[in-house]
Design a protein that fits this description.
By secondary structure, the chain is of the alpha/beta class. The chain has eleven helices and eleven strands.
Length: 300
């Protein structure tokens, strides 16, 4: 089974217990307006252009067979992306490395062998975490990869929004040690407005998942979207009702801005403000008031 990967991060300490290798898959049906990984939305190869590395030498323009690359211009994406065929001529010509391709295709067994090389660093608690994008957009690939890991004694964590077919989850959960479940908003209208999809399937799947494997709920704390006390209280009630003990608060950040620029996309972050430390602590205290354990920034 083949899967498309956006990135592989070794020695991660924020994506599950212990030291982990985190694999980010490409493909996601949600369009969260604060998303920091726009390169994972579509399961296709994409061209990155990193302006900060560009020297303006013009070699990329000369070698582009479709003339999709224009002159260097500060603050402007120089690529006419509708004309780009991803031939990689610009990558080969650019000595400073201002271009790269997002997306790598792996056979599950080959990716497993790569993960195996990190096994000496996992210790008792570490292992593999699959993230995204939305991992459930490639369910058969996850199942095969998790099966190989469990056979080799490697811990598995699924980092998901829960937006996927239950029949796919049923095949994956027997090989899953922990689920990091993203709950973005409890109100369906709010969820649909800010992510583009209903939360009904997410909440239904979340309850089913929690009945089968340990779950930690991740809450991306976005000012003006889901940081109100009503939403946080309903999230806490959902956690308690389903036996979830941990809430991981992930305060809004704009660290993905450079990715939007590199893909020729407009950054969405101007519509959001940063949260004050006191606001994050208030949210944490609300959850603690429900008897839940809380981490900020998903510190395991």
């Amino acid at each position: 089974m083949r899967g498309m990967i956006s990135e592989i991060t070794s020695f991660s300490t924020h994506d599950g217990p212990g030291i982990r290798t985190t694999v980010f898959l490409k493909g996601c049906p949600l369009r969260c307006r604060w998303c920091s990984n726009p390169e994972t939305w579509n399961p296709v190869f994409q061209l990155y252009f990193m302006e900060r590395k560009c020297t303006g030498c013009g070699k990329c323009e000369k070698v582009c067979p479709t003339k999709a690359i224009g002159p260097a211009s500060e603050g402007k994406d120089r690529i006419r992306r509708e004309d780009c065929t991803l031939c990689k001529a610009c990558l080969n010509a650019c000595l400073p490395g201002a271009y790269r391709i997002s997306g790598t295709v792996f056979e599950a067994k080959d990716l497993f062998r790569k993960i195996q090389r990190d096994k000496p660093f996992f210790g008792e608690d570490g292992g593999l975490t699959i993230s995204g994008g939305e991992p459930l957009s490639q369910p058969e690939f996850i199942r095969e990869l998790f099966t190989l890991c469990k056979e080799d004694g490697i811990s598995t964590v699924l980092d998901t929004s829960g937006f996927g077919k239950w029949e796919d989850l049923e095949k994956i959960l027997p090989f899953t040690d922990l689920v990091l479940l993203d709950i973005k908003a409890m109100d369906n209208a709010v969820h649909q407005k800010w992510t583009g999809v209903s939360n009904q399937l997410i909440l239904e799947n979340g309850a089913r998942i929690a009945a089968r494997v340990p779950v930690r709920i991740s809450v991306p704390l976005i000012p003006g979207v889901n940081d109100d006390s009503d939403n946080l209280q309903k999230t806490a009630e959902f956690a308690r009702k389903n036996g979830v003990e941990w809430i991981d608060l992930n305060p809004f950040h704009a660290l993905g801005a450079a990715k939007y620029e590199s893909l020729g996309l407009e950054s969405p972050y101007a519509q959001f403000r940063s949260l004050e430390k006191e606001e994050v602590e208030q949210a944490a205290e609300l959850f603690r008031g429900y008897g839940l354990q809380v981490s900020v920034g998903r510190m395991m």
